[in-house]
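WARN  no MSA supplied for this record, continuing single-sequence
INFO  ligand: iron/sulfur cluster
INFO  echoing inputs
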Amino acid sequence: MEHLEKQIDETRQGEALVLEQTSGTKKMYLESYGCQMNFSDSEIVASILKDQGFSTTKDFHEADVIFVNTCAIRDNAEQRVRNRLNEFKIAKRKNPDLVVGVLGCMAERLKEKFLDEEKIVDIVVGPDAYRDLPNLISKVEGGQKAINVILSKEETYADITPVRLDNTGVTAFISIMRGCDNMCAFCVVPFTRGRERSRDPQSIVAEARDVFEKGYREVTLLGQNVDSYLWAGGGLKKEILTDEQRAAATSFAQLLEMVALVSPELRVRFSTSHPKDMNDDVLHVMAKYENICKYIHLPVQSGSSRMLELMNRGYTREWYMERIEAIRRILPDAGISADIITGFCTETEEDHQETMSLMKWVGYDFSYMFAYSERPKTLAERKYEDDVPEETKKRRLAEVIELQHDLSEIKVKAAVGKVHRVLIEHESKKSDAMWMGRNTQNMVLVFPKGDLKPGQYVNVFAKECTKTTLIGEVVN
Ligand code: SAH
Ligand code: SF4
Ligand code: F3S
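INFO  complex generated
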């Protein structure tokens, strides 16, 4: 269940994550939907507004400003935001001075249309324009609507220290790059987050060191395609590098090593790897440092090479299988997870079976699975017909979900009877007498609290399990 709850947090389609309360004069309420990048962005927004004297509230009824950081990845992610805006209407009726702002990917996708379609909205801000928020707020206070959806080729917010919204103080997200240059046929992200750009590695390492000194014990490095990370110096664009500059630039493998060296007591995770770019250098660095967690999220999307070609993913089924073999060779114990889409344009029953057979072949520990949802402006929307009937997409989705449940259960059962090194994160959601933590493979364990505290490492013997969670006891 713990694992499931985490799964919901990370469905990338929007469980609300609400800011903790702090003191100040004007009150803001901030809610985030979508992926970890969006959550990490909310921490930047909170930092910018805190500097403007805003305090935060967990109750939107008492807010002066409500911000919703939105996701556009699938239609249902957008519907969820619209439903939420409807709920805020009541608060606005009671307090006509209430300011409602939409941030993030759906704001970027809809731009000024958002102001027309949702009368309640006063501010629309895209992911690269958060520095402009104070200015936009004062514009609204002057009686106007305000919008800034300019995308940037440089912005990485490298100099802004995020206000950590995770209230456990153990795990932190660090964005290492922004945007995406990949243009997968189904995906709206390149349109909502703009061109790929990497962040200065020194600022990343400094941020990791800072959170470690504040007591955090795990960082997750975030990017849409972390394997594509490359830093050649401020202002130097990846596309125009000479061979010499490229050789001297910091790669993701090198960055990973730099962060791992902050402290052996700081666990390092990262997301998302891209099968076309994930190279053995990264795997060797992972093998070299115990504190880099042995877990790789490697989205496959489909097991059919024909589908992968249509999706413009840049690899085949065979290429993907070779990458999995490299992981098994270099990191024999690694946990592996994926993202899977069912019912993409022209997908046949045969294609679907290829996805199922690949899932079995890999034996994923875990997957995020979605029915294809057509997104405006994408290659698929412009060039292909969304021709798989909704009920077929849903039926295939149900089949991959059922298969994944079986595969996950096999993995969890195999971990029973073993001792796992666990970082304690927080109280178990099911029992206030138990702690919850993860092993290096990202598997969830719960065990009696004793006199232990979050942020400590413990060895836990897994005695038994549910379908998704190991139940154990601390051993020496
Ligand atoms: N950059 C990451 C994915 C980011 S989006 C990567 O390349 O793996 C997260 C996941 O949402 C994707 O991996 C994909 O499985 C899913 N997704 C993206 N667009 C979608 C769409 N139009 N319909 C259904 N699922 C989609
Ligand atoms: Fe979207 Fe593909 Fe970029 Fe991932 S790599 S964000 S799926 S375009
Ligand atoms: Fe959603 Fe944007 Fe993330 S579309 S999944 S919030 S990058």
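The chain is about 35% helix and 20% strand.
INFO  checksum written, moving to next record
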